[in-house]
Write a structure and sequence with these properties.
Radius of gyration: 22 Å
CATH topology of the largest domain: Rossmann fold
Order of helices and strands: HHEHEEHHEHEHEHEEHHEHEHEEEH
Number of domains: 2
Helix content: 25-40%
Structural class: alpha/beta
Largest sheet: 9 strands, mixed
Shape: globular
Number of helices: 13
CATH architecture of the largest domain: 3-Layer(aba) Sandwich
Number of strands: 13
């Protein structure tokens, strides 16, 4: 069944719909009766699935990504907000505990409708006119400076965390291959100087227009040279043009589907195993093109908001086998995590024979400094809302391009260039 264009954040992102892709190792597991989403992920996540499903059905938490190009005073624009992680490269903020406590006090007094009981709310409003805008964990709309530049961008903290993995420098040339609506592009822009460059791609005209509007509202072009393009990422050809490439690929977007269904069971029209297999094939094409357009020594980050191992580690493993370029995963994984991930992926990728390893090079991974958020997978990390403060889901994998073409030895062995590296980051 082809993916619906109307369902899921990732379904509308750059690249065409995932309906035409059936080649490669991505095929839905054949069974007498198609499995539902709950059956499929219940089998993968086991006893954890009910808890994870409940967390995904909750309203996603947003943070405020500070925009350094806004001319408003920092303290004024971030009043009532506190830094999520002082050690993070991006400046992301959430409602401070003091504001949440004040809001709880207001809520406690505001219930029976009595005039006297409403008085504490007036006192709180008078005491902190700016702070009260951020209530119940919901951040107010960003203020705008005299030049029309917004003070912050609201997004899932997991998205900001993904951008950190690119390690963008001031002079980098960056491609955001599937950029709409633009949150990650805005985050990338925070690291660039006028001598850097940012290319934001979105194939669909309506989403590209929204992307362009968000960039105009956050990134002044005289500070960050940026441009938008409308190209099909699957046919992207611009060899070694960028030093950093982000592929935030179209995906099954299970959390969005559960939000739309208000937590009710999803029908096979809304989600199916064939859907996730089709997306995996599309994602594989996008990641291969991203690797080709990255310079040697550059960094590629692949991410999805899917919880499907087939669309996450499954795609990375497939691409590491297929790509003509020298590339290796930069990740933090223990041997146990690699073995567990390989066992999870294997039954989902039926092509290629049962029992055949679908995680090339995973056995040779060398851990680098562990990342703060998420849990290790074979090739990257997975942030899930039941363990990450409601953020996510978000999978990401960091790849480093080592050569334009694989060496003869690595091409014949199929895994030498796929082994993980210790980059100390």
């Amino acid at each position: 069944m082809p993916p619906s264009r109307s369902a899921g954040r990732g379904r509308n992102k750059s690249g065409t719909a995932a309906t035409a892709h059936t080649k490669g190792g991505f095929h839905a597991k054949s069974s007498a009766r198609p499995r539902t989403l709950d059956e499929y992920y219940g089998e993968i996540y086991g006893e954890r699935w009910p808890r994870l499903r409940a967390a995904m059905a909750e309203v996603p938490r947003k943070v405020a990504l500070w925009n350094r190009f806004c001319q408003l005073p920092f303290k004024e624009a971030t009043r009532g907000l506190s830094r999520v992680d002082p050690n993070s490269l991006v400046q992301a903020f959430q409602p401070s505990q003091e504001v949440n406590a004040a809001d709880s006090s207001v809520t406690a007094h505001h219930g029976t409708g009595g005039r006297d009981e409403a008085k504490p709310q007036e006192e709180v409003l008078a005491a902190s006119p700016g702070d009260i805008l951020h209530r119940n964990g919901i951040i107010a709309k960003p203020p705008v400076d005299a030049f029309g530049i917004k003070a912050y961008y609201l997004l899932d903290y997991a998205s900001a965390h993904v951008v950190e993995q690119l390690q963008v420098g001031a002079f980098d040339s960056v491609l955001d291959m599937c950029a709409a609506p633009g949150g990650k592009s805005v985050a990338i822009g925070q690291f660039l100087s006028p001598d850097g460059a940012l290319t934001c791609n979105e194939a669909r005209a309506d989403r590209c227009a929204r992307l362009r509007r968000n960039l105009q509202e956050h990134l002044p072009m005289n500070y960050v040279p940026w441009r938008t393009t409308q190209r099909d990422g699957q046919t992207w050809y611009d060899p070694e043009a960028f030093s950093r490439v982000l592929v935030d690929a179209p995906c099954s977007s299970e959390r969005h589907l559960l939000q739309q269904s208000c937590g009710s069971p999803l029908s096979l029209r809304e989600w199916s195993e064939e859907t996730t297999a089709n997306f995996a094939a599309l994602q594989s094409m996008l990641l291969q093109r991203a690797i080709e357009t990255c310079r040697v020594g550059g960094r590629i980050v692949y991410s999805t908001c899917s919880i499907s191992p087939l669309e996450n580690d499954g795609v990375v493993g497939e691409v590491l086998q297929r790509t003509r370029c020298g590339v290796r995963a930069v990740r933090s994984s223990s041997d146990a995590a690699v073995a567990a991930a390989a066992a999870t992926i294997a039954p989902l990728k039926t092509a290629g024979g049962a029992g055949k390893s679908n995680v090339p090079g995973a056995e040779g991974c060398a851990p680098h400094t562990p990342l703060v958020l998420g849990e290790a997978t074979a090739y990257g990390r997975l942030l899930l809302p039941d363990t990450c403060n409601g953020w996510g889901p978000m999978f990401f994998c960091v790849l480093e391009k080592t050569a334009t073409y694989k060496s003869v030895a690595s091409s014949s062995s199929g895994d030498d260039d796929d082994r993980g590296s210790d980059d100390g980051s």
